Amino acid sequence: MKQVLSGIQPSGFLTLGNYIGAIKNYVLLQESYHCLYMMADLHAITVPQEPAALREQSESVACLYLAAGVDPEKSTIFLQSAVHAHAELGWLLTTLTYMGELERMTQFKDKSAGKESIGAGLFTYPSLMAADILLYNADLVPVGEDQKQHLELTRDLAHRFNTRFGETFTLPEGFIPQVGARIMSLDDASKKMSKSNPNPGSYIALLDSPDVIRKKISRAVTDSGREVKYDPAAKPEVSNLMSIYATLTNKSLADIEAQYEGLGYGPFKKELAEQIVAVLEPLQNRYVEIKKSGYHLDVLRKGAGQAAEKAEPMLTLVKERMGFLKL
Ligand code: AMP
Ligand code: TRP
Q: How many domains is the chain built from?
């Protein structure tokens, strides 16, 4: 059975972009594959995090996975920092990564732009991500579009290692949704929807209340026309809203166009808001229950043990191949 691995950084609350680009597929893939889903907390600290906030956000992401339907009977849910092999393989792979490769990463360029002090970890972040994936010989990595470049580097590192030290790692493939791989901001369709945007009107947080969701969708920017038509070049705002609608309802873009033909944006936006509420409200109720019960902490304890059991033999093999003296 194929192996799946993915993760989300607990660096803030999650948005509808995280849900559509990643979590929705986590739930789908666990029906057919061995899946490991982590809270990438070692990645989260590549930008400054308050210790109390990091703890809180890590718990929150775990509860959201569970509330969204990631099933700990089918998938392993764990904290990256709880499995030592990630940091260790991360270092080993950092030594095989070229500066030029890291300099080309657009996420690094975006996150470091205009900053005065940039942590070295932000730069070497992709080598750690490669370690997360290669440690479990993952075949498939469900992520949004923005992680494509990191996955390419992961494949290059796997190939480089295999060539130098002998066949060891599987070359992973991305599992990127056809529609919804890049959900855009509600106030500016040229930017990706992101939790780090200072304008809360630009994103739907997974924990936004139904009323806030309705308000944000009704205020979402659209062009001055009235045709509900999927055309990302000419109508990027409406096309983005249609992508959200399509992924949440499993309807095709053509069906949505037909459904709203001649009706204008008003009814479309209203129904879109209701579809989002229909998905998020039950998720939020489950989230509150799980958080209160402390169930997620048990899941994380068990998950760390299961992940470490898989990771350790791989790390041992890698170290042996690289020539570390075995005592
Ligand atoms: P991050 O929040 O950066 O840790 O991202 C976690 C996952 O959500 C990654 O797989 C991202 O590619 C995905 N993701 C984040 N923002 C978006 C977005 N606006 N649209 C689609 N996927 C996204
Ligand atoms: N870099 C990813 C992001 O920001 C999070 C992540 C860390 C990840 N390790 C991973 C995703 C391994 C997939 C596989 O979205």
A: 2
